[in-house]
Structures are given as C-alpha cells and as structure tokens.
C-alpha cells in the first residue's frame, strides 16, 4: 500500500500520517570532483570506488553545466583541465585510512586513463564549494529556458544511451545545446536542452516536443523510465506507454477505479479513464 500511494501521485487517496526514520549524522564527509575523458570512463570510476569505499553520493555533469555554473562567478573551476564530463563523489572518512584508500583509488583511475584530473576537499568550506558545482546547475541554466526531461535507464546502459540522445538532438537541431547532469549512482539523468537566442519559447518548446518521441523511443529501447524522480503528472501522461505495458496500465486504471470510483483524487493525472 505504501508504494502504491507513492507511485499513485495523489490519484489513489490522501496520506494523513507518516513516520520518519532518523539516520545518524554523517562523519567527516569528503568530496572528490574528477574530470573524465568521456562518459565511458564514468562507470569504471564508479565501480573502482564502490568496491572499496561506501559512497554517500555519486553525481555527474558535463562541461557545459560546469561552464554555466562558473559563469555566475560564485565558485571557481576546481582544476585547470577542462573535461567533457565530471563526477562528484562523496564519502564518509572518520578514519585516516579511508582517506588514504580514496587517494589510492584516485591514483589508480588516473593510471588507467579513466580520470584526467581531480581534486579532493581539504576543508568543510571546500566540500560546500565543490558541491555547488553540481547543486547550482539548475539555477544557472534557468535563464536559458531549458526544456527538461527527467529520465532513467540501467546504469550499465547510460553511456550508450547518452550518446544516442546527443546524436538525436544534434541530427534534428544542431544549434541546440544539451546540458547533462544527474545521479549516476542510480541511473537518473537530467536532460536539459537550452533555448537558442533566435527562437521564441513557444517555437523552442514545439521543436523539443518533436524530439521527445525519439528520446522516449530510446528510453523504451533501453527499458528505462520516462520519469525518474519527478513523476508523470500531466506533462508526461501521453508518454506513459513508453515505460509501462498496456497490461500494466490496465492494472493501474483498475486500482484507480477501486480506490477512487468517483474520480475525485487528483483527476487528470497519469492517465484518463
């Protein structure tokens, strides 16, 4: 029942009470930002660190996202080398041996050619500064009126998926800039297409909606999700079939009718009855 209500997006009923589980406060969080030569290098880096260290975060973003954040002037580039993609990883280091292990893995990744450059936080202020490179992306690209898609695929499919989406957008609209970032640890990708100056918002969004079909065809090809963490709602309602089979949608509609026969709970979301 819990998961039904979470996935139901308010269409099955109201949550009137919830219990919150408290976690212990992390100890001595450290952050590494690493530049990688291409997206194919991201997964070996993730696996190398995951095998030896318990990660609390593993994020990625592209050079365009980095540049948009830097252009605002609030943070500096973490190292001189410009790279196609960057990963930010966070881990607890309450003991010195964990820091030593992280540096050993970092050096191993450099030797393998998976990492071109990188930096490890040396203070709490630097932890916060490095995190801003990732957390400030949405605010930094907002003036460019991005067309956003929140999608996900299996982690092993992410490199091929990103390449295909890049090719699709460039083949259809070569003047569109793509800003990638996301939570690579769970295959959650934020695809942001930035509006060119010569297009109105309506023209731009119309062109992006044409691309949507190709994007979601690719999501379906890789057995992914059209909405990784922001729900389906009304915007992605027409595309639900790309992530769910007719049988699954049939079950969803049957549950909706059972829980809400009068159709008063968040009507119009997910699908039409």
Automatic annotation (TrEMBL):
InterPro entries: FAD-bd_oxidored_4_C, FAD-linked_Oxase-like_C, FAD-oxidored/transferase_4, Vanillyl_alc_oxidase_C-sub2. One of its GO terms (molecular function) is oxidoreductase activity. Gene3D superfamilies: 3.30.70.2190, 3.30.70.2740, Vanillyl-alcohol Oxidase, Chain A, domain 4. Residues 26-270 form the FAD-binding oxidoreductase/transferase type 4 C-terminal domain. Coiled coil: none annotated. GO terms for biological process: respiratory electron transport chain. This is FAD-binding oxidoreductase. The lineage of its organism: Bacteria, Pseudomonadati, Pseudomonadota, Gammaproteobacteria, Moraxellales.
